[in-house]
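Narrative progress, year one. The postdoctoral researcher (J.K.) led the effort to move from monomer predictions toward full complexes, under supervision of the PI. The following entry was the first complex the group processed end to end, covering 600 residues in total.
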Amino acid sequence: MNSQPLERIRPKIEALNAIPSIPAIILPLTSLLQAPPDQVDIDKVVELVSYDSSIAAQCLRLANSPLFGRKNTETVRSAVMALGLKRVEAILLGCCLNRVVPADKWSFDAVTFWRHCLGCALVSRKLAKLIGYDDPEKSYLAGLIHDLGILITNIACADEFRACIQDARERHVSLYQNEQQHLGFTHCDSGKILAQRWKFPADLVQVIEFHHNEAELASRPLLSLVHLSDLLCRVRNLGYGYYEAMGVHFAGSPAWESLAKTYPALAKADLARLTMDLDGAMDEIATVVDTVFATPAASH
Amino acid sequence: MATARAIARPDAADLTDPAYLKIRDLIYRTSGIYEPEEKLYLLASRCARRMKEVEAKSAADYLQRLIGHPDRDSELRSLLNEITIGETYMFRSPPQLEALRNVILPQLTKSKAAMGFKRLRLWSAGCSTGEEPYTLAMFLLEESATRLAGWTFDILATDLNDNSLATARAGIYGDYSLRNTPEALKRKYFTAHDDKHLQVSDQLKSVVRFDRVNLNDDQRMALLKGIDLIFCCNVLIYFDLNSKRKVMQHLYTNILPGGYLFLGHAESLYHVDDRFQLVHFPGAIAYWKAPAGAAGVKQP
């Protein structure tokens, strides 16, 4: 790959580190998620939520939405309890990452992007549990952040990226392929730079860097999980908002085969059923994402 | 969408009855049709109609009727009829047609043209009242202007039910069947029959051949060869496991290497057949008969 274009945007990406509060919230969040769900300190979560008034407001709004059937949830604590840790974390991270990109700087629909990330997180965790991977929560987080680079490229070279997406949309090809052709680097490259600057753990950096790279998947179950989940989302209407001409034979893919060697349960997985379960979870994904992105005037 | 679903949702307390999950699993085991947990209310509303009919007092009571009653087989069939009712209309599954247009036809025409063939054979197995084969006919005729220029094709449409076949041959359809058909195609491929019905044009009829075939008839099935694409939607659900396996054995033989089998959108072949390979397209899944030595379907 030609490294010139990437070197050209590196300073811009590194300058993003100066944006206040982004790493301040994401880093405690990633460490919070390392703990098993029953050992997570709820007070700490409530504190994180309360840290930011707009995030707190969004948690309250979602907790009071018809999806949860609750009315008059007035405190941050009761909202957190109603939503459950995973949804709160999704909202937190969504809000944080969303702020990296100012509203007028999106090259494509922010809601679509975030639905893809949250969908990938949910599928990664589900697949992880299905096969007996020992850290399903980490795979959730990895799914959530795997496309971090898209946000970064979006800011660092907005015009070129917009043209790249538009062309991919018209030709029904994958964004990753088109980035290589149009930009000379991909969201995996730009995401890696930011993830390293933000001092993400090495395995999460690998997910961001290699989730499209089949040659790197062997013996890296977390990476394989996210790779498969990303593909599954893209074929179930949770992709980048355009038609990608693709036919995916999951069970014959290198990621599947490599994962099945370590986790034999995968070979017995009912993929058709998993796919339909994902369709069933669409409403929840849409509600959580729309809560994060809805403007107060648009919400009810 | 959300509002419409909310209205269709029966009494929420009802859905907490674990009997619904057991009914869901029973249906999946016996028919291959699956409803994710989030969509159980759809199943519950189908059950509600049957429960009223057989005077079952609760979901648990109805479950007993499905597993312990002398009439259980016919009741299960009645429930399956409720579940699949209204499934038949033209352009029922746009994602299947998009997969054909964007992925499968380019793949098939390339490999067949390389062998000197420029002919495609499609089979609508269990065509009911003809909506599916006529949809495929319109789709292929439209593609003839571009991708399929110079190609010939024929569509075999079979069913066991003589009444359905008579309706299909007559080719007269009302609003329900045509609700998803683009106006331009209605004008091109139909003529007015009366105030409320349209008649299929002779051109459309000329590419579809209707016939009565029992998928369980070994001799008859053995004669059907050289099919590129089979559509068999909500048909296998009525067969028991052994018959399903036998039918699948036939379909696997009927279809050419490199060809695809499409089932209904909630159907799965899990535990029924493991020779076909499950392939995901955006919004649609299909079963692929891999050519000998094939490396798998390309994925981005």
